[in-house]
């Protein structure tokens, strides 16, 4: 089953002289459990694509379905709840709250969601797996870039999202930490059947994913699957 579907999606920013055609007629299907890399030159539309799929911005034209819900048809409130429960984001700049310690940053999406209670055991499990449990009382400013990125990943995973959207999650990391973070994302993808879309400039990393979606000038130029997925070991 496709967990994501984009139909004739277009995104235009600005007007007249400032008009930018950031995405042009994007059609895309992503299967449940797939780990797809998104590559393309700077300004090609990668972040715009993730923002639209995550409902952080809306398309100028076209439809986006996530888990068979057309996200453009949801009210603001419905979209906020849908996003919080189904979609996790990892941004390149980590976007951690400086006044909260590691544990509270990770728990934040659950704290926001009044209908849910904090699963302390799961948070501990995540922090242990990510090797930052001993840092749980530290503040973001006391952590290295790699550690902050792992906190951001834990926070994105805390609601066990079906879809994880990562914009250059390894952009500022050294190669050893990059390998570590990629391993964690793949393990999470397998363990929880998550679908991951990850923007990366690193061609070698992209080639380790199930599929590489190549965007140029707002268009998908290739999106071939490297091998079929459908659950099972080694799917990611
Ligand atoms: N909020 C905005 N307002 C106006 N133009 C924008 C906005 N966001 C993006 N753009 C433009 O849309 C195009 C696509 O931008 P986008 O950020 O999606 O590129 P990208 O592929 O993520 O680039 P990078 O690799 O540098 O992050 C660019 O020409 C950019 O200048
Ligand atoms: Mg970008």
Summarize this entry quickly.
This protein has 236 residues and is α/β, with parallel strands linked by helices. It has one domain (33-58, 83-222): P-loop containing nucleotide triphosphate hydrolases (Rossmann fold, 3-Layer(aba) Sandwich).
What does this structure look like?
The radius of gyration is 17 Å and the shape is globular. Helix 5 packs parallel to helix 6. The chain is of the alpha/beta class and 236 residues long. It has one domain: P-loop containing nucleotide triphosphate hydrolases (Rossmann fold). Adenosine-5'-triphosphate binds next to strand 2 and helix 1.
* Proportion of residues in helical segments: 25-40%
Bound small-molecule species: adenosine-5'-triphosphate, magnesium ion
What's the Cα radius of gyration?
A: 17 Å
CATH architecture: 3-Layer(aba) Sandwich
CATH superfamily: P-loop containing nucleotide triphosphate hydrolases
The helix count comes to 7
Element string (H = helix, E = strand) = EEEHEEHEHHHEHEHEE
- The residue ranges in which pLDDT falls below 50 over 5 or more consecutive positions are 228-236
CATH class: Alpha Beta
Average pLDDT score: 88
Shape: globular
Q: Into which percentage range does the β-strand content fall?
A: 25-35%
CATH topology: Rossmann fold
Could you describe the largest sheet, including whether it forms a barrel? 6 strands, mixed
Task: Trace the largest sheet across and list its strands.
Answer: 6-7-8-3-9-10
* Content-based structural category: alpha/beta
Note the topology.
Layout: E1 2-13, E2 20-31, E3 35-39, H1 46-53, E4 61-66, E5 69-70, H2 76-86, E6 87-90, H3 102-112, H4 120-129, H5 145-157, E7 163-167, H6 175-192, E8 195-199, H7 203-206, E9 211-216, E10 219-222
Bound molecules: adenosine-5'-triphosphate and magnesium ion.
